[in-house]
């Protein structure tokens, strides 16, 4: 777990050799995800485009997708971490069906990854306490301090804050990546590959 900001030093797609092996490519994808979760926007540079991802769940009425911020990763365990309000619809959907998909796109790389995941939800324990301690005084903590559940109707746009900075609504979501669908858009020909845990990686028709 490391929140230290890193510079965004992506491998430009143009320099990725055309003869790259699938195992090298898989390592590069995780390196890129590592750069993304630790990147921060600064005055002269935006955050890595993969830091903000789209996250899809299976809802009662079909698929539901929204933006999230990737906060952490454990590449050796194929896990990505993000945060949510425990009362939010996405968490309710995950309690009913833990399958989710994370979508990342990088214009500079020309890379899209679709990560098929199984999500674990944690609202207590040492890890949750430590993560909350690190964000509780940041503006991001406001996302988990509303006395009302996300999606509750309001009379006015401003959401009241809870009087105390309790963390009972703060949930840490750990996405265990089961499969990666990688797509590269490239002037010399698009490429696509699939990496599935327990199976041989495979080039695919883009
Ligand atoms: C750029 C951006 C980043 C966001 N990051 C998160 C996040 O990390 N976690 C989260 O729960 N919601 C995040 N949101 C809000 C969600 O996209 C969504 O609107 C909200 O969580 C309600 O989703 P739900 O009703 O499906 O639970 C973000 C929204 C934007 C626009």
UniProtKB/TrEMBL annotation:
Pfam families, alphabetized: Pyridox_oxase_2
Protein name: Pyridoxamine 5'-phosphate oxidase family protein
Coiled coil feature spans: none
SUPFAM superfamilies membership: FMN-binding split barrel
Residues in Pyridoxamine 5'-phosphate oxidase Alr4036 family FMN-binding domain copies: 38-121
InterPro entries: Pyridox_Oxase_Alr4036_FMN-bd, Split_barrel_FMN-bd
């Amino acid at each position: 777990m490391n929140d230290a900001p890193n510079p965004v030093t992506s491998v430009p797609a143009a320099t990725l050799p055309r003869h790259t092996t699938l195992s090298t490519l898989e390592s590069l994808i995780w390196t890129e995800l590592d750069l993304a979760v630790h990147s921060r926007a600064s005055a002269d540079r935006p955050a890595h485009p993969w830091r903000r991802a789209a996250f899809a769940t299976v809802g009662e009425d079909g698929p539901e997708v929204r933006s999230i911020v990737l906060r952490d990763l454990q590449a050796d365990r194929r896990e990505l971490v993000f945060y949510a309000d425990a009362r939010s619809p996405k968490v309710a959907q995950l309690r009913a069906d833990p399958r989710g998909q994370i979508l990342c796109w990088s214009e500079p790389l020309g890379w899209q990854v679709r990560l098929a995941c199984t999500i674990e939800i944690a609202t207590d324990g040492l890890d949750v306490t430590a993560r909350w301690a690190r964000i509780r005084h940041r503006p991001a903590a406001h996302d988990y301090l509303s006395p009302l559940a996300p999606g509750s109707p309001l009379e006015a746009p401003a959401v009241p804050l809870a009087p105390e900075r309790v963390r009972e609504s703060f949930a840490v979501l750990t996405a265990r990546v089961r499969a990666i669908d990688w797509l590269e858009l490239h002037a010399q020909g698009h490429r696509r590959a699939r990496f599935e845990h327990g199976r041989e990686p495979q080039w695919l028709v883009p």
